[in-house]
Amino acid sequence: MGLGGFPNFANHEFGWFNALGFRMAQMPASRYLGAGKLVAAAMNLLKRNPSVPYPTGLECNGEVVLKPFCPPYFRSMTEAVRAVADIKFGPGGVFRAAPQGAPGQRGTT
Predict the structure, then answer these.
(1) Integer Cα distance of 47 and 28 in angstroms
(2) Domain for residue 5, yes or no?
(3) Which residues span the domain enclosing 81?
(4) Which backbone phi and psi does 39 adopt, to 5 degrees?
(5) Does residue 53 have a cis peptide bond before it, meaning omega lies within 30 degrees of 0?
(6) How many domains would you assign to the chain?
(7) What is the Cα 41 distance to its own chain's centre?
């Protein structure tokens, strides 16, 4: 009859990441939301500061498939930011390499 909606719908924000085998971490909701110290203290006092799971990467058979620029794949966020800057602006970075067949590029004839 079509009553009851879609039967395979899974309304769990993190369930798909768990099912696909993502590496998960947790942090307090106040930190996840970027709340200040006063709001975080109030949330803790009212017992309204649950742990929020979040995906941090994907590994398959010991091989890293998706490696975000954050811990645990880098020792710190400073190291992660430097890695991004190096990929973009380092000696072989995507913004340093010579253009290959760019529109308007002159030939070498």
Answers:
(1) 11
(2) no
(3) 19-89
(4) -65, -40
(5) no
(6) 1
(7) 27
First to last CA, the chain: 71
In a domain, 3, yes or no: no
Pairing assessment for the beta strands 22-28 and 51-60 based on DSSP bridges = antiparallel
Residue pair 40/49 in contact by the 8 Å Cβ criterion: yes
Q: Which residue has the tokens 């709340």?
A: 35
Interatomic CA distance for residues 67 and 79, integer angstroms = 14
Output the 3-class SS for 48-88.
Answer: CCCEEEEEEEEEECCEEEECCCCCCCCCCHHHHHHHHHHHH
Is the whole-model pTM more than 0.70? no
Q: What is the mean pLDDT of residues 13-35?
A: 90
Tell the residue number behind the tokens 């309304």, with chain if given: 11
- The predicted-structure confidence for 76-100, as pLDDT tens digits, reads as follows 999 999 999 999 998 888 887 666 6
Distance CA 27, CA 106 (A): 53
